Model the fold of this input.
Amino acid sequence: VPTVDDIHDAVTHIGTVYNRYYAMLTNATSSRIGLPTRQLFEPIPLGAELAGGRGATLRLAQ
Amino acid sequence: MKSDILGMHLRRDTWELVREILHGNPGLPDSYWWLFMVQTYVESQAAAVRRQVYADADARSLGRLLKELSTTPRVMTREHYISIRRDPDDSWKGRDAHRSWNTDFAGDCGDHLDPAIPAADFDDLQRDSAKVVTWVDRHVAHNDRRPSRPTRCRPLTTFTTP
Done:
């Protein structure tokens, strides 16, 4: 049974491999997936659903 | 493929943010919401991992890309790799492109992608994702007879679930 950490390890692995081949095939380094992710996600449109979801979670937690 | 992989990282980023919020608020009440949140997160992330590792012919996935590159390595040549990086005003970029090609992709082949490189990446991806993929196959996509314990979730232990 996988743990959350197992899943996160797999996500990191996929992102790392993707970055390498994305760079090989396109040279479009500005659109790479970044690890760590938070700052590098800023240019990506998140969409209203996600923004709403985060806000709702925050309100619930507080 | 890109949006799916970006989505994985975005969900993880959100998960980590929520985890911080929960750790900062230890007095939150018991609720089915927590179990719902964990199960939804785990299943969606694990299914996304499986999608990218799955490499059958009809798949649009990282696994499929690696498999195709390992069987058709001549589609990626040194010449093309250098040509999309060369800058007539900056000779350093050309030299750096040669260096990175030799380091990352040439392997034993030199002028085209060494098929052993994507093949090894594919095998590593399969091996490191095997536990997650097997769990999805048996307990998310299907309902296998073999027993499975609930997914453990170390980070979210500041509250109890019903």
Observations:
- Confidence is low (pLDDT under 50) at residues 155-162 of chain B.
